Amino acid sequence: MRCITYLVASSSLLFPFSQASALDRRAALDECLTKLNVPTFISSSANYTQAIKPFNTRVTFKPAAYAVPETTQHVQDAVSCGASNGVRVTAKSGGHSYASHGLGGEDGHLIVDMRNFNNVTVDPTAQTAAIGTGGRLGNVAMALYNQTKQAISHGTCPGVGVGGLTLHGGYGLISRSKGLTLDNILEATVVLANSSVVTASETQHPDLFWALRGAGAAFGIVTSFKFKTFTAPESNIVFQYYLTPANASHLSTILTALQDFSLNTQPQELNMRFFLASFSSLSGVYFGTRADFDKLIAPLLAQMGISTTRGTITTNTWLNTLTSFSNGPLAQAKEYNSHETFFAKSLMPARLSLEAITALTTYWDTNARSNTRAWYLLIDLHGGNSSAVSAVPADATAYSHRDAVFKMQFYDRTYGNVYTESWTAFLNGWVQAIMDASPDAQDMGMYINYADTSLASEEAHRRYWGRHYERAVQVKRGWDPEGMFMGPQIVGR
Ligand SMILES: Cc1cc2nc3c(=O)[nH]c(=O)nc-3n(C[C@H](O)[C@H](O)[C@H](O)COP(=O)(O)OP(=O)(O)OC[C@H]3O[C@@H](n4cnc5c(N)ncnc54)[C@H](O)[C@@H]3O)c2cc1C
Ligand SMILES: *[C@@H]1O[C@H](CO)[C@@H](O)[C@H](O)[C@H]1NC(C)=O
Ligand SMILES: *[C@@H]1O[C@H](CO)[C@@H](O)[C@H](O)[C@H]1NC(C)=O
Ligand SMILES: *[C@@H]1O[C@H](CO)[C@@H](O)[C@H](O)[C@H]1NC(C)=O
Ligand SMILES: *[C@@H]1O[C@H](CO)[C@@H](O)[C@H](O)[C@H]1NC(C)=O
Ligand SMILES: *[C@@H]1O[C@H](CO)[C@@H](O)[C@H](O)[C@H]1NC(C)=O
Ligand SMILES: *[C@@H]1O[C@H](CO)[C@@H](O)[C@H](O)[C@H]1NC(C)=O
């Protein structure tokens, strides 16, 4: 089902990559790929049907062709087939984009599925690791751990792909201590629009390296990253406190306390998130001692009106810490088969005003509490004066949310695989209510890793990249002058 109408005018200007007849070029594309021995899933095969089913089944697209390369040369050849046929090319790693950007975000792309690029090779002396972009987080975490107990900072769900997560952010339960996933990249190996391969780093093609860290989908196909790793911490306090806000003013008190804590008091070692749904919780990880944790959390819980006895607190090894939040085993099959049907939005506010908090909690009281779908609002305590994410200078990477106190994810779904488009009004209304009460609503960012299908391209660009957008466009002109890597929301024009 197509969920949004995209502006066609801007794409048709992008000769030679016109979408108008991309699907008619299927036969020529398949012929080119076959001639160059690039492995593909042909559209009549069961593998193809399985592979194009996105994580979010609400948002489906028809590719023009589907390549499954095994070598860098295959990726280069696939890109050249896209170029010679005037078809846009899109890399897919884990396929977890909320707007199915890994399938192009629109019909008619040549998809380059990176599933075979899943090697993880640790250099224990240097504490670095070469990681293929097609790996899934759970498998990568286990492989790093197996090789001299290393780790990187990454998101919580084990099925998410390294490629999309890293190129656009990557926030998880050690990010406050170690930064975003993209903050830990030392090098990226990239197949460019003209099929040549370059390595980008602080010293090699720094403009490309800047753009890849936050806006990566629009510049090439990254085959692997070199990451800085750290030795996995093995004695971690995992906590979860349950609570039910009594009413809107209680929820306002909770959010105000969390915001003040994140901005001023929360140390790097404490990572946490507030989950608001039909049941609510405060959960996270403390990388320190139980005694220090108790001292830190008690005053916050008191402010939030949560009893210290409403919690579960355990001490965990690194892999158990990961599985405490992974909602299933870390090991992931190559042929991925988990799906949801949903609509989601995000907000990355520098700070929520008292009026904005009141608008949020009033809407919760009047519209959300009575909504019986499986919606949630997940608030990560992202920034503040001791967060490693905020410590990186605002313009050092294309990621544009260094000052955001919260990373807010609004998610609405049913457990059946249906989602009626009119239901989007629920979350659109919630975010609008917060915006209407915010003096800085124009500047409020959104996170492309929670891609929002309701945003037209101009708003998507502004919300995802803010003042970094124009610089990203300049960089793109140098590396993808003809607009091969385009989509409805990624950096373009
Ligand atoms: C269940 C679930 C849990 C999540 N948890 C977290 C979390 O804890 N923290 C967090 O920060 N985010 C989280 N996310 C969001 C996630 O980071 C994004 O959806 C991310 O973009 C997914 O990456 P992917 O490779 O799986 O997706 P894809 O759909 O394959 O790719 C996403 C985008 O990246 C581009 N891309 C992918 N690979 C490459 C490549 N090799 N070269 C160039 N471009 C590429 C694609 O073209 C597309 O535009 C979660 C998402 C889901 C569905
Ligand atoms: C294609 O699908 C078959 C049957 O599901 C599976 O056994 C095979 O491994 C798949 N091929 C690839 C290359 O994934
Ligand atoms: C992965 O590693 C194996 C073994 O070292 C190697 O043969 C293969 O080429 C690598 N694959 C990729 C895609 O880098
Ligand atoms: C890691 O090692 C464990 C235990 O030896 C093994 O079960 C698992 O398959 C390995 N995983 C990876 C990704 O290497
Ligand atoms: C909201 O709940 C709090 C905590 O239970 C309570 O003290 C307060 O009186 C309630 N306020 C209203 C307006 O009901
Ligand atoms: C963090 O910032 C607040 C002001 O917002 C200040 O009161 C506090 O002392 C700062 N803490 C540290 C450790 O710098
Ligand atoms: C490929 O494109 C890059 C970036 O525009 C350029 O530097 C390089 O010279 C090109 N390579 C070839 C072989 O044209």
Any idea of the CATH class of the largest domain?
Answer: Alpha Beta
Largest sheet: 7 strands, antiparallel
Percent in strands: 15-25%
Q: Helix proportion of residues, in percent?
A: 25-40%
CATH fold node name of the largest domain: Vanillyl-alcohol Oxidase, Chain A, domain 3
Chain-averaged pLDDT: 94
The secondary structure category is alpha+beta
What is the terminal separation in angstroms? 27 Å
Rg, Å, rounded: 22 Å
Structurally, the number of domains stands at: 3
How many DSSP-defined strands?
Answer: 17
Topology summary:
Elements (H helix, E strand, L loop, with lengths): L7 H5 L13 H10 L10 H6 L13 E3 L4 H14 L3 E4 L17 E4 L6 E4 L4 E5 L4 H10 L3 E2 L10 H7 L6 H4 L6 E7 L5 E4 L5 H10 L5 E8 L1 E2 L4 E8 L4 H18 L4 E7 L3 E7 L3 H15 L6 E6 L1 H7 L17 E6 L6 H15 L7 E6 L6 H4 L14 E8 L10 H13 L20 H9 L3 H11 L14
Parallel strand pairs: 1-3, 2-3
Antiparallel strand pairs: 4-5, 5-9, 6-10, 7-8, 7-9, 11-13, 11-14, 12-13, 12-16, 15-17, 16-17
Helix pairs in contact: 2-4, 8-16, 9-12, 12-14
The structure holds flavin-adenine dinucleotide (FAD) and 2-acetamido-2-deoxy-beta-D-glucopyranose (6 copies).
Features:
binds flavin-adenine dinucleotide, Uridine Diphospho-n-acetylenolpyruvylglucosamine Reductase, domain 3, globular, 16 helices, 17 strands, binds 2-acetamido-2-deoxy-beta-D-glucopyranose, 3 domains, Vanillyl-alcohol Oxidase, Chain A, domain 3, alpha+beta
Polypeptide structure, described:
Its cofactor is FAD. It comes from Massariosphaeria phaeospora. GO terms for molecular function: FAD binding; oxidoreductase activity. With 493 residues, the chain is of the alpha+beta class. It has 3 domains: 92 residues, 2-Layer Sandwich (Uridine Diphospho-n-acetylenolpyruvylglucosamine Reductase, domain 2), CATH 3.30.43; 112 residues, Uridine Diphospho-n-acetylenolpyruvylglucosamine Reductase, domain 3, CATH 3.30.465; 206 residues, 3-Layer(aba) Sandwich (Vanillyl-alcohol Oxidase, Chain A, domain 3). Helix content is 32%, strand content 18%. It has a 7-stranded antiparallel sheet. The longest helix is centred in the middle third of the chain and has 18 residues. The protein binds flavin-adenine dinucleotide and 2-acetamido-2-deoxy-beta-D-glucopyranose (6 copies). The site of one 2-acetamido-2-deoxy-beta-D-glucopyranose has 4 residues, from loops.
